[in-house]
Amino acid sequence: MKKILIIMLGLLVIVGGGRALLKVPSVQDKLLELGTNRIAKRGAEPLPESESLRVYVCGSASPLGMGQAQACIAVITPEHFFLIDSGAGSTDNISRMGLPMSQLDGLLLTHFHSDHIAEIYEVNLNSWVQGRPQPLTIYGPQGVDEITDAVNAGYRLDRIYRIGHHGEDLLPPALGLLEHKTIEPGVILEDGELKITAYMGEHPPIEPAVGYRVDYRGRSVVISGDSNVNDNTLKIVDGADLLLHDALSLPTASALANALGAAGQSRQSQIVTDVLDYHASTESLVELGEKSNVGMVAFYHLVPVPPTALLKDVFLRGAPDNFLITEDLMWFELPIDSDDIIVNRP
């Protein structure tokens, strides 16, 4: 009956007579009921169970790009859920993908540029509201305490308002406060068959900047954050199944800088020019792939985001078949006891 009603309303809209019908309160109420029921059921559906290591692209963009969220990667095993970075727009993508925020174990920061930390509190609030049972820990290199304390202080009143409105039973005050843990290069966490290793990146003048390798039951993924390719990169990707690395298209970024300068936008041109020396060029990543035995390389934190097929081809110029460009809502499945990497596109 519900499907029939929707089809009838759709036909009425198509032939033009439905516009008046859609202004009838009883029809509006019925459509609201159908729509909200669908949203509620979708929200109640758990993430499908899997024994695999799964990696989700919550944000694929750099500040040089519109239409995609900024840097954020989710790594999920049957027992664990970690986020790496939390750029602007990424929390909405987490919700769209139906990731289990009530089970979030921690947020790992690669460094403290705004496009990697913009939604720390949104992640905290979202997981707190959904029933996360322990305080959210923010992991990061030296300086993570300053970032965490600032977020806690800046949103103190927000927490007070929400606890006052919804009550301490629903929102326990202690779970609204972020905790922090300063990490050094090396193994930072081991839990069962999960191991997370931090390595030093190269993102001057930011120091330290780190990336992370996650190993789980023989499968592995490396997430770079922002970094040029260096010796540490080559070592950490050894034997990895999947590498998600920030990537800069030198032909595209150079052309953009020149065009901005020619158009009299000297400040913007200088900004783009400055970016060229502290992100990994696609050429350097192709070379990395040739020197290592990494299974697949996926470009993310794209500089700049390629909005057309032509610019995507420029990004992948010279890259072998095991290289690809990520986009928001893409995810990878790495089955256990297999070398397969299943790429799922939105």
From TrEMBL:
Family matches, as Pfam families: Lactamase_B_2
Q: Does the keyword Hydrolase apply?
A: yes
Keyword Hydrolase listed: yes
InterPro entries in alphabetical order: AtsA-like_MBL-fold, Metallo-B-lactamas, RibonucZ/Hydroxyglut_hydro
Q: Which ranges carry the Metallo-beta-lactamase domain?
A: 100-250
Cross-referenced CDD domains:
arylsulfatase_AtsA-like_MBL-fold
| Origin: domain of life | Bacteria
Keyword terms, alphabetized: Hydrolase
Name the record gives this protein: MBL fold metallo-hydrolase
Organism per entry: Candidatus Seongchinamella marina
What does UniProt list as this organism's lineage?
A: Bacteria, Pseudomonadati, Pseudomonadota, Gammaproteobacteria, Cellvibrionales
